[in-house]
Every structure is written in structure tokens, then in C-alpha cells.
Write a structure and sequence with these properties.
The complex is a heterodimer of chains A (390) and B (190).
Chain A lengths: L7 H24 L4 H32 L2 H14 L2 H6 L2 H5 L1 H4 L5 H6 L1 H5 L6 H32 L3 H28 L12 H24 L11 H32 L2 H10 L2 H22 L2 H5 L1 H23 L9 H23 L12 H5 L6
Chain B lengths: L17 E8 L2 H13 L5 E4 L5 H6 L7 H27 L12 H27 L23 E6 L7 H10 L4 E6 L1
Antiparallel strand pairs in B: 1-3, 1-4, 2-3
Helix pairs in contact in B: 3-4
The chains are: A mainly alpha (390), B alpha+beta (190).
């Protein structure tokens, strides 16, 4: 059995993704001359969605190292490839620092003078500390991704079981570090868009969102990869069943966090908090949140209750793609109302698609570099013995 | 091989009512293998007994569909509606209270209890539905007449072919089970 796959389709896909992403990002940069503020804001939205998939993949990678199981074994190389995009996404954070003045109100001296509450937060919310913290987050994420990828590859070469133990030992504390850094990163990068507003569950919404985006993405990639060897010989309905169950759990986790925040702020109805939802539940955004409630929670929830659907990759991938699209829409709903000026929403859409092409190209490039199956993993025998029709 | 096989021990001469024939196996793999072969031989009224759940076993004896998920789903829907309308009745109809100037029918405030009631009803439906579908509690079951059957809770694995199977023919079933590696095959009386 061949454990590496024919990289030709991945390379074709990579080239097309790079071209499409490159063209769209050039269009976005050209539009920066029309309105540089909106350019940087749209840049943040596009960058966030795809970086979120990479960071979420890191969470799932560590999760499967800690739990073990066939579902984790078969998606491991996809997760690893996704985390290897992090160094480049970290470099692409630099324009966000350069454009901080267009994105973050707390960088404006006159805002600090008019709003004492924001001025009070300047020991934390100032550009120098913002940059230092961002460097720390990326250092943690890239270090975790680096070691997990390095040991995984070393095990392919040496068949040493010690690496499995190393990865497991790193994943426990790594998961704690990851959840802390995502929490702080989401406060810094997104909650501070409205510097007077705060919510303590905000970080967890991002932890759940990014893991959910990553899982939906992985399911979509798996449905594509099982059409050919070697995964067509390995991945069974049983594995999709497990991934589907995890998708259902994360859809519910995201709904739980997102609704908790709404319930508490709605109950309290305090002037400094409720503004967040007033903007987001009226007019066009009000229609969007109803669509999110139906298509991001109710529909995936009901579909994913079905055992037959979860075991059928062709149907499961439809739900996963729906979740991915709704993740984009939910991100727009969370971030765009924070930018107060009149907005061209299509700029955000171009940024989402442009970064999508770029990131998918990076992902396909990384995916083609290594065998799709960790051949010397101790679970190899037992997963290979699984009947592909189960 | 077939010619050297010792004669079958259990010839039934007197027709005491028979529940079926039970075979005893030493390991889970033997049991699953035997169950699969027995199913393939056309027997449908078969059942496996083991000290712990064996994932493949239910599929091996042809038990692939259960109505339990539907029962749980209906239970959940009933729980959700009951939870919501209980609060609606209390807050809007029976004893309207102005809480923080919010509308009486404040759906966000009703969600936690609606959710809990959904889980509660779904969980009860799962447990009770399981008992009903399994026809439990059952004070008497013939399979306990089988010798050694108490070992099914420790380290023995059993496969029963019931006498009401349309294909059931005592001697052929005994022979089949022996050929599948059973360490002992016994009749089970009703």
C-alpha cells in the first residue's frame, strides 16, 4: 500500500488557490487607495477567519494526541499541515499592527481624552504591549506546532515510540497554554474593537469558534482525500461518524457560549454592555443573527443528530461546508458592526475570499509534503485493521 | 475431518419444550465470528451474551436498526415544548410578573429551562425506551437454564439460536455451532 498520495491534484489545487487568492488580495490592496481604514478593517476580518482554522487545528491536533483513537489518526496529517501555515499567518499579522490606527479606537489620543474608561485601560491597551503580547501568542502557537510536526516526522523516519509519548506530554500543558493565549488574543484583537465593552466568555467563544471552523474544514478535506489512495483504503464510515459527533458537540458548545453571553447581557441590560447587542440585533444585522440561529445552530444540530448522515461523507461534508460558511457570516456579524463608519461589506468578502485562496494554497502546499498516514504511529496496525465499510 | 467428528452428545428424544440451543465460547473474537457465520447460515433468531459490550456483536447477529433514537428524539421535542410552555403559562397566563421591564414572554430567559427539560425528557425516554424495547424488567428468562450461563458475567461468551427461528432444526444447529469452535453446546429449555 502506498502511504503517500499522488500530489498532482494537490499541486493543481495549490496553484489555482494561490492565483485566485493573489488576484483578490491585489484587488483589496488596490482598493486600499480608496479607503485605507476600511482596507485594514477588512484585512483583519479575512486574516482572522483563516488563521482561526490554523489555530483551531492546533487545538484539535493536541486533543487527538491526548485522547488517541482512529478518528484522530486519520486526520492527523491534515491538522499538522494546517498548523504549518501559522508562521506565514504570523508574518501577515504585521499589516494589522501597521494599520492599528485604522482598526483600533484606543490608539487615538482624542478617544482616550473623551472616554476615561478607555483611558483607564491604557496600561494594558497600548500599542507596544499589544505587539509584545501578539509576539507571545504567536511564539506559543508556532512552538507547539513546530514540536508536534517535528516529532511526528521524526517518528515516520525512526519508528521510535518515544515521540508518541513526547507529543502526548506536550499536548496537555499545550492545550492549557493554547486556551489562555486564544482568550487573550481574542480580547486584544477583537474585543478591544469596542474598548468600553467587555465580556468574560468572549475568549471561549473564539476557542469554540476556531475549533469548530477547523473541524468543519478537516471534514471537508477528508471527504476530498478519501476519493483517492491511500485514504480511500483507510478511512471508514466509522471515522466520519466520530468526526460528525465531534462536529455536533462543537456546534452545541459554540451555541452554548454565544447564547450565554447574550442571555447575561440581555438580562443585565446595562448601558455599557447592551450596546453590543443593540447594534447587532437591529436592521440588517438583526436579520443576520436570525439566519445564524437557524443555519449555524438549529439546522446543523438537527442534521447531525442523524447517524446515517454522520456516516455518509457526502452528506456530512454538506453540513461541514454550511458550518464553514456560517462561521464566516458569524465572524462578520461579530466584527463588522464594531467599525463605526459606513461600510462596504463587499470589501470584507473580498478579504475573506482572498485570504481563503492564499491560506488554502499554503495548506495544500504543506499537505503534499508528507505522507497522509503517520506510518510508524503505534496505532497504525489497529487503524489499518479497521474494516473500511464499518 | 467431518468423518472423524465424534457423535453428537445431545440427541433429543423427548420433546420437552425447547427455548433454543446455546453455545459457549472462550473469547469475544470466537463469539463474533460464530455469530456472523450463524447469521450467514440463515438463522435470524439468534442472540449473543458477553460479560462486556462488544461493538461488532450487534451487527454480527443482524441487529442493525433500533427505534430507540426516534423515541429519544420525540422525548426531547416533548421536553422542549413542555419546558417552554410551562414557563409561558406561569409567566404570561397564570402569574404575570414584571421583571426588569421585560416582556412577559421573554424567550431568552426561558431557554435554559427549556434546554434542561429537553435533556431531562430525552434522557428519561432513552432509559425507559431501552427498558421497553428490551422487554425489561423480565423476572424469568429461559437462557438462565443453560449450564454455566452465570459465567456470561465473567469470562465466557455465549451464542443462542432460538427454537422459534423458522430454519431451526436441532441437530443441524448443534453441528453448526460445534463446527464454529464452541467449547460446549447445550439445549436450553423454556
Amino acid at each position: 500500500m502506498s502511504t503517500s498520495f499522488n500530489p498532482q491534484p494537490a499541486n493543481t489545487f495549490r496553484n489555482r488557490a494561490f492565483i485566485a487568492g493573489g488576484v483578490l488580495l491585489l484587488v483589496l490592496v488596490a482598493l486600499a487607495f480608496l479607503d485605507s481604514h476600511q482596507f485594514f478593517q477588512a484585512y483583519l476580518v479575512g486574516w482572522t477567519f483563516w488563521t482561526g482554522i490554523a489555530v483551531g487545528s492546533l487545538a484539535l491536533l493536541m486533543l487527538q494526541h491526548m485522547t488517541g483513537g482512529g478518528w484522530g489518526f486519520v486526520i492527523r496529517r491534515v491538522l499538522e499541515a494546517s498548523t504549518r501555515t501559522l508562521p506565514i499567518m504570523a508574518l501577515l499579522f504585521i499589516p494589522i499592527i501597521l494599520g492599528a490606527h485604522s482598526i483600533y479606537e484606543w490608539t487615538h489620543q482624542e478617544v482616550l481624552e473623551q472616554h476615561p474608561v478607555v483611558a483607564f485601560k491604557t496600561p494594558y491597551l497600548n500599542l507596544t504591549f499589544f505587539i509584545v503580547r501578539a509576539v507571545v501568542y504567536f511564539a506559543v502557537w508556532i512552538a507547539l506546532a513546530f514540536f508536534l510536526n517535528r516529532w511526528s516526522l521524526a517518528q515516520d523516519r525512526t519508528a521510535d515510540v518515544r515521540y508518541t509519548k513526547n507529543m502526548r506530554v506536550l499536548s496537555g500543558p499545550g492545550m492549557i497554554a493554547l486556551i489562555f493565549t486564544i482568550t487573550f488574543a481574542s480580547v486584544d484583537w477583537y474585543m478591544s474593537l469596542e474598548p468600553e465593552w467587555y465580556s468574560t466568555i468572549y475568549g471561549f467563544i473564539f476557542v469554540a469558534s476556531w475549533s469548530l471552523s477547523a473541524l468543519a474544514f478537516v471534514i471537508a478535506v477528508m471527504a476530498w482525500l478519501i476519493q483517492e489512495e491511500p485514504l480511500s483504503r483507510v478511512v471508514a464510515p466509522l471515522h466520519f461518524h466520530d468526526l460528525g459527533k465531534l462536529l455536533l458537540a462543537l456546534v452545541m458548545l459554540w451555541s452554548y457560549f454565544a447564547f450565554s453571553q447574550y442571555l447575561i447581557i440581555w438580562s443585565g441590560n446595562l448601558p455599557e454592555e447592551i450596546g453590543y447587542y443593540l447594534e447587532r440585533t437591529h436592521g440588517l444585522w438583526g436579520a443576520v443573527i436570525i439566519a445564524i440561529g437557524i443555519l449555524h445552530f438549529a439546522a446543523p444540530f438537527l442534521f447531525l443528530l442523524s447517524r446515517e448522515l454522520k456516516r455518509n461523507p457526502r452528506r456530512l461534508v454538506m453540513v461541514a461546508l454550511l458550518v464553514l460558511v456560517m462561521r464566516m457570516i458569524d465572524l462578520l456579524w461579530m466584527l463588522v458592526p464594531a467599525f463605526h463608519e459606513h461600510r462596504w461589506i463587499w470589501l470584507d468578502v473580498i478579504a475573506l475570499l482572498g485570504f481563503g485562496g492564499l491560506w488554502l494554497g499554503l495548506f495544500a502546499w504543506q499537505l503534499a509534503k508528507r505522507p497522509l498516514i503517520p506510518i510508524n504511529d503505534p496505532q497504525f496496525e489497529s487503524v489499518m485493521a479497521t474494516d473500511v465499510h464499518r | 475431518m467431518a468423518t472423524t467428528r465424534p457423535p453428537l452428545v445431545h440427541h433429543r428424544r423427548h420433546a420437552t419444550p425447547l427455548y433454543g440451543v446455546i453455545a459457549e465460547f472462550e473469547g469475544p473474537a470466537d463469539l463474533v465470528h460464530a455469530a456472523r457465520k450463524t447469521y450467514e447460515a440463515g438463522y435470524r433468531r439468534i442472540n449473543g451474551y458477553s460479560p462486556y459490550p462488544i461493538e461488532e456483536l450487534s451487527e454480527a447477529i443482524g441487529f442493525t436498526h433500533t427505534r430507540l433514537p426516534l423515541i429519544v428524539f420525540i422525548g426531547g421535542v416533548v421536553g422542549a415544548l413542555a419546558g417552554y410552555f410551562m414557563q409561558y403559562y406561569i409567566e404570561v397566563i397564570d402569574y404575570p410578573l414584571n421583571v426588569g421591564g421585560k416582556p412577559y414572554n421573554s424567550w431568552p430567559a426561558f431557554i435554559p429551562i427549556t434546554f434542561e427539560m429537553t435533556v431531562l425528557f430525552a434522557a428519561f425516554s432513552a432509559v425507559l425506551g431501552m427498558l421497553v424495547l428490551n422487554k425489561l424488567p423480565q423476572p424469568y428468562h429461559p437462557v438462565f437454564n443453560a449450564p454455566n450461563f452465570a459465567m456470561a458475567t465473567r469470562d465466557r461468551f455465549f451464542l443462542a439460536v432460538e427454537a422459534n427461528d423458522p430454519q431451526f432444526e436441532h441437530d443441524r444447529v448443534v453441528e453448526l455451532l460445534k463446527s464454529l469452535g464452541a467449547i460446549e453446546v447445550n439445549d436450553v429449555e423454556v
